[in-house]
Amino acid sequence: MDGVAVHADTSAGTAYGPAWTDEADRPVLRVSGLSKRFGGTQALKDVDLDIAPGEIHALIGPNGSGKSTLIKILAGYHHAEPGAVAELDGERFELGQVTGSRHDRLRFVHQELGLVEELSATDNLALSRGFARTAFGNIRWPEMERRTAALVERFGLGIDVRRPLAMATPVQRAVVAIAAALQGWEGRRGVLVLDEPTAVLPPGEVARLFHIVREIRDAGASVLYVSHRMDEIFALADRVTVIRGGRRIATRPVAGLTPRALAELMAGQEKETGHQSQPPTSGTGGSTGGGTGIGVAALEVRDLWAGPLRGVGFDLARGERLGVTGLVGSGHEAVPYAVCGAWTGPVRGRVRIPERSPRWVDARNAAGLGIPLVPADRANEGVVGDFSVGENLTLPLLDRLRARLGRLHRRREDALTEAWIRRVEVRTAGRGARITTLSGGNQQKVVMARCLAQQPPVLVLCEPTAGVDVATRQQLYELIGRQADDGMGVIVSSSDTEDLLALCTRVLVVRDGRIVREISGRDITEPALVHAMEGTE
Ligand SMILES: Nc1ncnc2c1ncn2[C@@H]1O[C@H](COP(=O)(O)OP(=O)(O)OP(=O)(O)O)[C@@H](O)[C@H]1O
């Protein structure tokens, strides 16, 4: 294997490799009869799964199908219902047990990565496996930094092990989470579980992560790779298990499958593979287009500087769906945050909503315009984990929901929440359920509903379909389209060309911090977007 050697604890000098030959066929991990109920929700029902040595085994299913629940049971976070059996290399182990041989052989990188972004890679690795100390109990920082560097350097991403992870790129953070999971990994048969590791990665970084995952597999480990993206399964996996509605539908070698067959297994019916992009029904693009209120600008942005952005300006018409895109690092990712006043670094420029006021607002005060943002990183920026579905939904509306004496008008709050849950079809046990009990796609719908419930003239979405399954993606597209038809100006910042093709009436392509190309209407095609992003027109 060149590049990444995935033994983790360099101080211990251990390594895992393709050690087995005679036990070649015995599954490394086998679970059977796995069921889990949360109140009225049957999250898993009698699920069986086996992972072969040295395979990348994908677990795929729509939002809410039970993937994370299965992973959390394996990780000991949830208990399974009685009757479940689990074996590692033929040896029974207790599900829910988080120490001993299970811990040595099953390692996890959860969707939320479990990192403290204010701390460095060194601190984060130490948090998961403890600090090296001198005989007097002092922490041996140089040794810890050396060890961490040795681990992460192998992934070749130039990670500075002393800098806070908040300053790292998404793929660097994912790699730190993987390195943390692999620390102290012994040379025995084991499974690295990756729960939707690409959900918050831009496409350019997805390819790097795939490379790393393959190297881990080539070093002899097995990988259980959770996803709901079919393209990832075909690019990466050896076998795939499909779950739907908490049941295992099938386990198949990927080599024998077509995208259509996999889509049918996932959907349970004849289904086209992937989303068919619809020509947008409204918004003609440019500052003069728009389904409603033609010619009226919903938002004007001038000379915006923030992070990599170097003087970006544009108009958004009412009813327009404006895409903003570019390669990783091009600067397009900064546009939504800067426009909404959510950029954390220095920013300058001017922004205004002309129908509210002719006065320009300094971009440093853009938050005062109250433009809602659907952020890219839902878990960290989108939801308040300790709050219920209802509280997350009505958070920005509290002023409107005040009754006399400043008390909250509970009945109005409940009615509003119920209406939005129905409208965006959130799958939840109820408005009082904690938001973290919802599947990722359903949490995204709550964030979207929260923004829409404010009835803003402008909505800004950043990577709106990250971590969202095909059916939910379609629902979100329709919802966004309907809002635009009603006159809302929508900015969609996305590195997923499928979003841009399906949603946008005009796309601004950013390179080196500047808008280099504007593509409108039927000229918005995959090749046109890719060429403009890469500068190969
Ligand atoms: N702690 C919990 N309490 C109550 N219900 C839960 C809890 N965790 C999950 N659920 C429910 O169990 C079902 C399966 O959820 P799970 O998160 O496992 O789905 P998923 O396949 O991982 O979805 P996604 O792709 O959207 O992340 C969903 O209906 C979810 O709302």
TrEMBL record:
Pfam families given in the database record: ABC_tran
A GO molecular-function annotation: ATP binding
Protein name: Sugar ABC transporter ATP-binding protein
Sequence segments annotated as region (Disordered): 268-292
InterPro entries in the cross-refs: AAA+_ATPase, ABC_carbohydrate_import_ATPase, ABC_transporter-like_ATP-bd, ABC_transporter-like_CS, P-loop_NTPase
Coiled-coil annotated residue ranges, if any: none
Feature: compositional bias, Gly residues: 283-292
Leader sequence segment: none
SUPFAM superfamilies (UniProt xref): P-loop containing nucleoside triphosphate hydrolases
Organism: Streptomyces sporangiiformans
